[in-house]
Automatic annotation (TrEMBL):
This is Beta-lactamase-related domain-containing protein. The lineage of its organism: Bacteria, Pseudomonadati, Pseudomonadota, Alphaproteobacteria, Hyphomicrobiales. It comes from Brucella daejeonensis. It comes from the Bacteria. Pfam families: Beta-lactamase (PF00144). Residues 147-240 form the Beta-lactamase-related domain. SUPFAM superfamilies: beta-lactamase/transpeptidase-like (SSF56601).
Length: 255
């Protein structure tokens, strides 16, 4: 019996060491995506939004995410303006760096380009504020806003008629727009089309696309998310969009 227990213990030790070596040398894609995502989110919120790193990791990464994210550790270097994240403190390290005018991005060894010259900021026209008490009352209703609300602003005819913010956020806190940004961009493009300044049929959109089939991609293709680029954003798996953002995979090839 003792011999069996000894052999079993030795077998388990070998398996454990093998798992540790595997995680250290070639961690699975899911872990690399998890640490890359966490590094980017913490970096953006610490160095752009001015939030506290522990709160960002807990509220923005671990609370809504995969259970494995609860085993993430983060290290914030304010001198180099970088964030490093690892699983269990050792495995699948990822680094995100902040640069003025560029924001935060995941980086890999040796691929961080020098800072670009910062263009002078063009002051925006001051936004007119004409609070509508009825609308203000609606957006301040906690039951309607739901848990986790961070900011709601209502603009009508170019005037800010209502705004409210969650705890720890205010009008000066930059926030990630995620896919809401696509809706805003579509609205702005629609306005430009109505003004006659853009056309859905326009092609040859980017200088990087000259010389190959991408030159035929139209604005309408992009608006309909039918660019023809080899790209899969199936959130049931570790999809191309996630890998392209968090690793060094290019999706800008024609299919």
């Amino acid at each position: 019996m003792a011999r069996i227990a000894k052999r079993l213990g030795g077998f388990l030790l070998v398996v454990l060491l093998g798992a540790v070596i595997w995680l250290a040398v070639k961690p699975p894609e899911l872990l690399r995506v998890g640490t890359g995502y966490a590094a980017k989110i913490v970096c953006s919120n610490v160095f752009i939004a001015g939030r506290e790193a522990n709160a960002v990791l807990a509220d923005d990464v671990q609370a809504p995410g995969h259970p494995l994210l609860r085993f993430l550790n983060k290290s914030v270097d304010r001198n180099s303006r970088t964030v490093t994240t690892r699983i269990f403190g050792f495995f699948a390290p990822s680094i995100a760096a902040y640069r003025p005018a560029l924001g935060c991005a995941n980086i890999h060894e040796g691929d961080l380009r020098p800072d670009i010259p910062t263009a002078p900021r063009i002051p925006a026209e001051p936004l007119q504020v004409e609070t509508d008490p009825a609308v203000q009352a609606v957006i301040e209703d906690a039951a309607l806003a739901g848990p986790g609300m961070r900011a709601v602003a209502v603009i009508r005819d170019g005037k800010l008629i209502a705004e409210t913010y969650g705890a720890g956020f205010d009008a000066d806190t930059p926030l990630l727009g995620w896919s809401m940004t696509k809706s805003v961009m579509a609205t702005l493009i629609g306005m430009r089309i109505a003004e006659g300044r853009m056309k859905l049929e326009s092609t040859d959109l980017l200088p990087q696309w000259k010389g190959d089939d991408r030159v035929n991609i139209s604005l309408a293709d992009l608006m309909a998310m039918e660019s023809g680029l080899r790209f899969d954003e199936d959130y049931g798996t570790v999809a191309d969009g996630i890998l392209q953002k968090l690793e060094r995979r290019s999706i800008c090839s024609s299919s």
